[in-house]
Amino acid sequence: MHLHPRPTRPPYDERTVPFITSDGVQLDLLNVRGRDRPHRGPVILVHGAGVRASIYRAPVDTNIVDALIADGYDVWLENWRGSIAFAPNLWTLDQAALYDHPKAVQTILAETGADSLKAIIHCQGSTSFTMSAIAGLLPQVTTIVSNAVSLHPVVPAWSRFKLQYMVPMVQKFIQYLNPHWGVDAPDLPAKLISLLVNLTHHECHNPVCKQVSFTYGSGFPALWSHENLNEETHEWLKEEFGAVPLRFFEQITRCVKHGHLVSVQGFDELPEDYTLAPPKTAARFAFFAGEKNLCFLPESQINTYNYFAALRPDYHSLHLLPDYGHLDVFMGKHAAQDAFPLILSELNRES
């Protein structure tokens, strides 16, 4: 396969800033700046489940980090406890919402001297960050750009079946699913799942791409359209997916059944049901959804926008992206023309 050379990046200054949560978990932030001093202030980017902060830095001509830096932002990429940069752990959305995101925001503000920041959040980074915001734990965040899902997870019928019936069955034998098993299946359960994926998914020859679709959605593929990815990105994503705990799938199953986010660990600081009281945040939300998303249906973000708009009309916004799915909103070869200008416009809009 011929791969185009990786695009030449502008010279960036990068530093890793570790932080420790109040429950004793060591996490980190990657601060990426251009050589010119940022003039817009900090923005935090929060990744989804079973990936890491680098998911925002796909090998395309211009990724979202490039676009933000070019527009004058001080970029901070959060690796929360669901990141594959760390050893696998049995995390929940509750833990990320209570411990990880508030501490990450506090760390950024302490490092920069800023009194507020903006956020771009995706998938389970989005659900858990939304939980933090609704619970009143992120008062310093003024604008939140949310992609794919936030308060109201809605999934395809096949995904509901997998969540309700297959997850409890598989959970008797393993604690994690890992799309990288397509490359390296270490034990019998992993080999059996890989065999099942290979028997049912024939959409491409990338074993991780196929495992991702089996793990997270109902499509062929589920998280992107192949036409939206360049060859290098399709190859690169082999190393960008790792272990995700079935404990998380238990929680998202409950959320899907309720039709909105619910807590599962009983922390006093978090509501049990995130729709029973108005959100304790003044942040303006910009909800994004790919119309072809086969992980979380676009109704997920439509429902959440309608909920927030009913509470505060003419404040929040909704963008439905035709020809896009779940992650190609950030990884797509044309996302810099189709999606990033809308994202930047929302970040630059005054609340």
UniProtKB/TrEMBL annotation:
InterPro entries: AB_hydrolase_1, AB_hydrolase_fold, Cholesterol_Oxidase. Its cofactor is FAD. Gene3D superfamilies: alpha/beta hydrolase. Keywords: FAD, Flavoprotein, Hydrolase, Oxidoreductase. This is Alpha/beta hydrolase. The keyword Hydrolase applies. Signal peptide: none annotated. Residues 42-191 form the AB hydrolase-1 domain. One of its GO terms (molecular function) is hydrolase activity. Pfam families: Abhydrolase_1.
